[in-house]
Amino acid sequence: MGATGPFPGPSGTPPEPVWDRDEADRALGRLRAEHEAIETSLLSLQDHAGRRLLEGAQLTGVTKSRWAATEQSITVLWTYYDAYSKALHTALDLRARRRWPSREDLADLTERLRGPSVAVGATGGALAERFTLAELVARMNELYASALDTIVAADAVWSALPARIDLLAAELHRTRSLAHSVGVRPGEHPAGDDLADITDELTTLRAEVVSDPLAYWRPAQGSSAPGGGTPDTERYDRAARALEDVRREIEAVLEVRKDSEERLLRLRDVISRADRTLTEARAARGEVLAKIAATEVPAVSGPSAVLHERLSTAAEYRRNAQWHRLSPLLEALERDAEDELLRARESLTAVTAPLAVRAELRGRLDAYRAKVARLGFAEDPFLIERYDAARRMLWSAPCDLRVAEQAVLRYQHMALDLAGQGAPRIPEQGGAGRGAGEGPPAGGAPGRGGGAEHDGRGSGG
């Protein structure tokens, strides 16, 4: 029986129908030791901390029903133990009558120790159930294992979860205090609502764990040992993760409180740079329209009034210590301000593109003039004529970029031809396509750029 439970049972039976004196004495010795082991286990069960907690708790649900059944099992267990004790004491008294028992005494002892000699449950006319001592020990082992499983499982849950819930509740209290200090409250901020939900969840969870611990027990698969399993911490773990998420969000708000002034200064600078860039783009657009002919110049929008309004709102939040509102607004403003600065720079690039094209043509014209001078053709009248024509176009206002480019290409062609190099083909129309107007064919009269011409030595912009 020792291999199947806490109570050792009598080992096998000899082939003889009746034990002799030594065999009977050995059997009685084993039964006496067995009785002591059973008594020790039952007293340990009786004094188990989990059992005392179960007896004093206001139980509900699964634990209430299982503990009611367990209490009945423990009562039956003690009844079996009393019957076992009585049967053993009777056998011991019988053996103590004579030092040398008779054949009849040994037959009686053998029957008592090996046969179905123990009657249990004879009350009020009900028939008693008879057991051998070995059968009675097996029954007690089953009842003991079932009772111990219930008690150990409940005790394990009570030992693990309420303490962890209390620690998490303390952390929740600290987080809630921090949240209130930065204005994060239920109904005003999502994190405040989350804190309220976590508070309710922990309160409910603790009450359920205390009243119904077995509902939070996860038995080990395939384990037959009493108390095999672990507490079910899924709801606790979920609440802990939610609290950690809120705590990180509160820390982010606290960081906003610490560095909000610096961030607002950076924001004002970025928005101011965007405004200045747009102002520069509008001025450049007017210059382009005045100096470049037949060119589509994109419109330039004004400063973003919405960004300035939101920046003022952010400053107001900071003055009023509304950190929970300032935090998301600053993050959005920082993204939008950078986008606005990028848009302003792109707008400036777009409107000044014709001026960049004109500057590139001027640079190319002067570069070829320097090359011609190095080759000794600086005084060539045809080159001078073509250079002056191209220069008048590029320094006139407004300047037709297509026509000016054709003039530069003609000068370039002649310079390369005089240098003995292969000249590029001169297209019939402006090859770069940087302007929007249609210029005259390549053989057209030079210097007609669509506006007043200078003498080729002045600066038209």
Return the domain count.
4
Element order: H for helix, E for strand? HHHHEEHHEEHEHHHHEH
Structural class: mainly alpha
Rounded to an integer in angstroms, the radius of gyration calculated over CA atoms is: 51 Å
Average pLDDT for all residues: 81
Principal-axis shape: rod-shaped
**Number of discrete helical segments:** 12
Let me know the number of strands: 6
* Range of strand content: under 5%
Output the keywords.
rod-shaped; 4 domains; 461 residues; 12 helices; disordered C terminus; mainly alpha
Give an account of the 3D structure.
This protein has a two-stranded antiparallel sheet with strand order 1-2. The chain has a two-stranded antiparallel ribbon with strand order 3-4. The C terminus is likely disordered. The chain has four domains: 130 residues; 91 residues; 95 residues; 110 residues, no CATH class. By secondary structure, it is mostly helical. Helix content is 67%, strand content 3%.
